[in-house]
Amino acid sequence: MFPVYLTEGYRSFLEQRFPAERRRFAQLAQSQQPEILIISCCDSRVSPSAIFDAGPGELFTIRNVANLVPPYQPDENYHGTSAALEFAVQALEVKHIVVLGHATCGGVKAYAQKAKPLSEGNFIGKWVSLVEPAVAKAGDPEAPNYLTRLEYAVVAQGLENLMTFPFVKERVEDGRLQLHGAHFGVASGSLVVRDPETGAFKAPLDTAGLPVRSAAAIACD
Amino acid sequence: MFPVYLTEGYRSFLEQRFPAERRRFAQLAQSQQPEILIISCCDSRVSPSAIFDAGPGELFTIRNVANLVPPYQPDENYHGTSAALEFAVQALEVKHIVVLGHATCGGVKAYAQKAKPLSEGNFIGKWVSLVEPAVAKAGDPEAPNYLTRLEYAVVAQGLENLMTFPFVKERVEDGRLQLHGAHFGVASGSLVVRDPETGAFKAPLDTAGLPVRSAAAIACD
Amino acid sequence: MFPVYLTEGYRSFLEQRFPAERRRFAQLAQSQQPEILIISCCDSRVSPSAIFDAGPGELFTIRNVANLVPPYQPDENYHGTSAALEFAVQALEVKHIVVLGHATCGGVKAYAQKAKPLSEGNFIGKWVSLVEPAVAKAGDPEAPNYLTRLEYAVVAQGLENLMTFPFVKERVEDGRLQLHGAHFGVASGSLVVRDPETGAFKAPLDTAGLPVRSAAAIACD
Amino acid sequence: MFPVYLTEGYRSFLEQRFPAERRRFAQLAQSQQPEILIISCCDSRVSPSAIFDAGPGELFTIRNVANLVPPYQPDENYHGTSAALEFAVQALEVKHIVVLGHATCGGVKAYAQKAKPLSEGNFIGKWVSLVEPAVAKAGDPEAPNYLTRLEYAVVAQGLENLMTFPFVKERVEDGRLQLHGAHFGVASGSLVVRDPETGAFKAPLDTAGLPVRSAAAIACD
User: Do B42 and A61 lie within an 8 Å CB cutoff?
Assistant: First the structure.
């Protein structure tokens, strides 16, 4: 039987969200025109559409383990993330790409702790080996908060890898496309975005230039 | 600058959703224990957490173009979808996997219409070639509603491909894991789920055995 | 560490419920004077204070597996339920006792299906043997809904067993104490109470004589 | 007639709480999977589901007089509390057990003041004799706050007695189960939890390490 959680959740969608957005869904019936591509983690605690309170049609969303961006590798294999990236950039012509990392990421941790294979195929082991080039950006593994620094580094590395795709590089350079890094804190609801100048992660600024921060993030200052 | 749509959406999340779910986020701070894996499309109109009104921690979510499940292929390449599947089943021990297709899927259409490569790498062309084995299940390409039938067939094929993974097969056979297919209609908000006996897609049933259907779906009868 | 679910739940209690009921809690600081004793199950889905939206100080509550009332047995052993019953009736002088059963009761099922011992001590096996005298009241085990009928019979048997306590019998007979049976449906939110004349379980009546029923219970008619 | 307080409370549940939690109740229709067992008092002022703002399905709850845990005693008698403990640990595999004491506990007081039997059966007298081993932990009976210290000691003794159950001991030792002590203040709404290192009772800490305390508790500093 279809999971009760989903059936009842769908009922709730039909009763509450869908009536409020019926017009938008009707408008979107034939095609989508999102301006933003989000590359985030499969993690159940990190739903981009929830964190950004996004309506239908707004976020083209890739979700893979540890929000990884493989480098450009045009061979005969299946590249799910690269395919979605190509579709978003070349077919939908999105204007922004956001790589969204998050706290206590199981994929980053599996890499850092050299976790044992989960099955004979060792799919996770191979996939998270994509974290490798980020290590140099993460600082001392023995110092505090290493996993958080590594999560930040994975985001920065993802932005670098995006630039290895010729169609991304070209559009970034001519100004049609912008790349962004961000990190979600889960427990406190805090979101920080990467300053492209300094590489530091800080609260996003609104149009008045004021930081948008959670109460918990403010309390921890 | 970080997209205004996201900064303001995050503000809305902080003011509305996060306070209502602060307890759940705190509880989830250290780890996730979702019972459901959703494999759905990157499409901006199809957010599983919206369609199922899911709270934080509930849905481990893979999103790739056309909600495709590659068959088991334990080689040296990166397999993002297989890695996420392995993590969900072997590490998180989810109890349900839902392959969620949707209407007017650009990836399925790209395959059906043999679209031209979007870039030199032709990532989408190779990725959507995974649709191929589903064609035989979709019926006459000249008859009406072929694309919808092909979307349904992609879901059915995904369920078949899931069973090529030994760790999935074992758990399905001993009852620890259930596989489900579903399809979201976008325009009308209709959701249908696949009957494992007949292969037909119908409204999901609630615990009283009554179908949960959108007003539009009812009106179309 | 104390469970986050409880710490955050307590925060929620402090912020919402406690301020609204601070006066009542202050009034109750030295002693309680409840008029109702509820004997219900430990089951996590059946909280009497939730189902009856009860405020602090209103319900003296025994919760044991399968809401069982052992018969009067004045020996040297520890009788937790009989002790609580004695305290409620003799010290607090409650005016009502409600035995509250519920749907899909694990304890009743363990008895009906002769479940294997859960540990060497077999505490559950011995405890649910108290269901035995109710069997004769439950009808044909092969006919549909046997477990529900057995749950009803356990409630009826509990009311009978209450009358084996001299201090209960005396007060019921002189009108100071009333005994009631009820059953909660979980899935549909339906509550039914036992008609002392006929033994049938029906929706409770309000002071205007109208049944108070859930929408689901109405829909199932 | 069924008590009006309950009928009207049930109406309130149907109109307010049930619609908000219909999905959760539907999901719970077939079985429960609570992670926490609470052992608390029957006292009408101490509802665990209220104090922890717990939703349906979250707390498996034993309520007996004075929240007592009898020691392991595998004989032929009925042991209601041990049976519920066995069910929670062995069948439901809860991860936490909380023994929750409270202020002005009538059962503890009855023991301390050697209250007269309440009936010929003297059920309370025998039951609260389980307080006996806690006396040595409570300090000088003539010094101030003896009853509070005895309530704390009963909680500590309960935790000790839990460890006499082989199935509890085994799971605590291999890390699958954690034991906790707590005490609720009634009048001020204050909750304190037992520090397993020092045995002191203090405010619980949230995930940021900050104490969660009632305004009254803060004012009393």
Answer: yes
What's the rounded Cα separation, in Å, for the pair D184 and C166? 34
CA C10 – CA C181 distance, rounded (Å): 32
Residues 6+ apart with CB under 8 A from D31: C104, C106
**Interchain CB contact of D210 with B (< 8 Å):** no
Judged by a CB distance cut-off of 8 A, whether residue C6 touches chain B is: no
pLDDT tens, N- to C-terminus, chain A (221 residues): 899 999 999 999 999 999 999 999 999 988 999 999 999 999 999 999 999 999 999 999 999 999 999 999 999 899 999 999 999 999 999 999 999 999 999 999 999 999 999 999 999 999 999 999 999 999 999 999 999 999 999 999 999 999 999 999 999 999 999 999 999 999 889 999 999 999 999 999 999 999 999 876 665 55
* Full set of structural domains in chain B with CATH: 1-30 (no CATH), 35-219 (3.40.1050.10)
Sign of CA dihedral B186, B187, B189, B191: negative
Residue A1 contacts residue D26 (beta carbons within 8 Å): no
What ipTM is given for this predicted complex?
0.96
Q: Which of B18, B21, B23 to mutate to test the interface with C (most CBs of C within 10 A)?
A: B23
Task: Report which secondary-structure segment, H or E, holds D4.
Answer: helix D4-12
Give dist(CA A160, CA D93) in Å, integer: 46
**3-state SS class at D124:** helix
What DSSP line would sit under C77-135, residue for residue? S--HHHHHHHIIIIIS--SEEEEEEETT-HHHHHHHTTPPPSSTT-HHHHHHGGGGGGG
Number of B/D CB contacts below 8 angstroms equals 6
Closest chain B CA to residue A36: B3
CA distance A190 to chain B (A): 9
